[in-house]
Design goal:
Layout: E1 5-11, E2 22-23, E3 26-27, E4 38-43, E5 57-59, E6 79-84, E7 87-91, E8 97-99, E9 106-110, E10 141-148, E11 154-158, H1 164-171, E12 189-193, E13 196-200, H2 216-219, E14 227-233, H3 239-253, E15 261-267, H4 274-284, E16 291-293, H5 299-308
Parallel strand pairs: 1-5, 4-6, 11-13, 11-14, 14-15, 15-16
Antiparallel strand pairs: 1-10, 2-3, 4-9, 7-8, 7-10, 12-13
Length: 309
């Protein structure tokens, strides 16, 4: 299962306490060590959020307390969390957001607390034997909403059982599960097409933008794609109704989605005769999108589509 939306809590380390101690010459208590920081690193592995399936609280190490003989406590070990490319992190308290857009990206998201000063630091001409020290400071804590939105060139959209997963498998090296019934695809699938990525979005139904069916869980994944590949089955009793059903959900979810470039892929053409295929294309032509009839059993149509992409 692919986790693409999760709430987590992260904490930097608490600073170590300063030490109160004396030797024969006076105070010698050392400072506490600084708490560990929390860093975010970026990976191309889109399943990286699965690490939060059971444990949603993550902390860097606390700093060690100071000791006698002026010894400073050891700094706490930093925590490094690896999150997938395309992730947005939103601090639920401050509203601050972080977008992960580069696999070489590193973000210091929580800074460790400072260590407390030992009593040696408080020695002065007026107080030669201070009998007190400082506690360490708390590290930064964040409550984060973590949302993954795929960064793909193309997004396959359409009603359930429109042939999207089969097409993805044919165009790429993906191994998406397919079946002759609705909602075979229960999570978004990705495939590499040359240096570009195609995302197969699980079938949408009327009301998806409001959460019906698989709802908004997957609509967010097409917000960043550059082009929509709108799959409509050649077997459909009303291809225009199918088109408008998907377009309406895209418009309700985010009006910008309807402004994206779009190709209409008339799928499963092997299941209808040429006359029916031509009639379906004629009905879709007024929409003014390029239309390509395809079938995973027709290598010529697949090769033509590959050249277009």
């Amino acid at each position: 299962m692919l986790i693409d939306d999760v709430d987590i809590v992260i904490r930097a380390g608490h600073g170590g306490a300063g030490k109160v101690s004396f030797d024969g010459r006076g105070p010698d208590g050392g400072n506490g060590g600084r708490g560990g920081d929390v860093y975010i690193h970026v990976t191309s592995d889109l399943r990286a959020l699965n690490q939060f399936s059971s444990e949603k609280n993550h902390s860097a190490e606390d700093g060690q307390p100071g000791s006698n003989r002026r010894s400073e406590g050891k700094k706490g070990q930093d925590l490094s969390l690896t999150l997938p490319l395309g992730t947005t992190l939103t601090d639920k308290v401050t509203g601050e957001t972080f977008e992960l857009t580069d696999v070489n990206q590193e973000i210091l998201i929580c800074k460790g607390g400072l260590g407390g000063r030992g009593n040696l630091e408080f020695k002065s001409g007026r107080n030669r034997s201070p009998n007190y020290s400082q506690p360490g400071l708390e590290g930064k804590k964040r409550q984060l909403k973590v949302i993954l939105r795929f960064i793909a060139e193309y997004g396959l959209v359409g009603l359930p059982n429109a042939g999207k997963s089969s097409l993805l498998n044919e165009l790429t090296n993906a191994k998406a599960v397919v079946g002759a019934y609705p909602f075979t695809t229960l999570e978004a699938n990705l495939g590499a097409f040359g240096h570009k990525v195609i995302a197969d979005i699980p079938g949408l139904i009327e009301g998806a933008s409001g959460g019906k069916g698989l709802g908004t869980k997957f609509l967010k994944h097409i917000e960043k794609v550059r082009m929509l590949l709108h799959c409509i089955s050649a077997e459909s009793a009303d291809v225009l109704a199918d088109y408008h059903a998907i377009s309406a959900e895209l418009e309700k979810f985010n009006p910008e989605l309807t402004k994206k470039d779009r190709l209409i892929l008339l799928t499963k053409t092997d299941l209808v005769d040429k006359k029916t295929q031509s009639a379906q294309i004629k009905k879709l032509t007024p929409l003014k999108h390029p239309i390509y009839p395809v079938s995973v059993y027709d290598s010529e149509s697949i090769e033509k589509l590959k050249k277009v992409l």
